[in-house]
Amino acid sequence: TMIVLTHDTSIQSTHSNLIFTDKTPEDIVSILEERGHKETVIIGGTLTASVFLKAGLVDELRLVIEPVLFSMGLPLLTNVDEDYKLTLSDVRKLNENTLEVQYRLKK
């Protein structure tokens, strides 16, 4: 099942495994659990990552590091009022210049 978090709920899919919604992270997890999913991957921008993290629904964070420095960009999180402690669990070299670092959130 793929769920797209969007403000435009008028979008309809012809596929039963694709859902467009503006529901809360908790509601989205409930939908996935009802469909038999035990794990999920959240792919999104600053707002999506922030609302799932604040809801306590994130236990792992993967960051891909590319060798590019931007003059301006978006923050990783927004409207997050607390610090989160992380434990490094893996580092993988994806290609000659790119790394993926994997962290577990300390509970």
Question: What would you say this structure looks like, in words?
Answer:
With 107 residues, the chain is α+β, with helices and mostly antiparallel strands. It has helices spanning 25-34, 46-54, and strands at 2-5, 18-21, 60-65, 86-93, 99-105. The strands form two sheets. A three-stranded antiparallel β-sheet has the order 3-5-4, with no helix packed on it. Strands 1-2 form a two-stranded parallel sheet. The radius of gyration is 16 Å and the shape is globular. The mean pLDDT is 92.
Give a short summary of the structure.
It is built from two helices and five strands, in the order ββααβββ.
Number of strands: 5
Mean pLDDT across every amino acid position: 92
Tell me the helix content: 10-25%
Q: Round the Cα radius of gyration to an integer and report it.
A: 16 Å
Structural class: alpha+beta
Shape: globular
- Output the helix-strand order: EEHHEEE
> Which sequence of strands runs across the widest sheet?
3-5-4
Profile the largest sheet: 3 strands, antiparallel
Keywords for this structure?
107 residues; alpha+beta; three-stranded antiparallel β-sheet; two-stranded parallel ribbon
Write the layout of secondary structure elements.
Blueprint: E1 2-5, E2 18-21, H1 25-34, H2 46-54, E3 60-65, E4 86-93, E5 99-105
Parallel strand pairs: 1-2
Antiparallel strand pairs: 3-5, 4-5
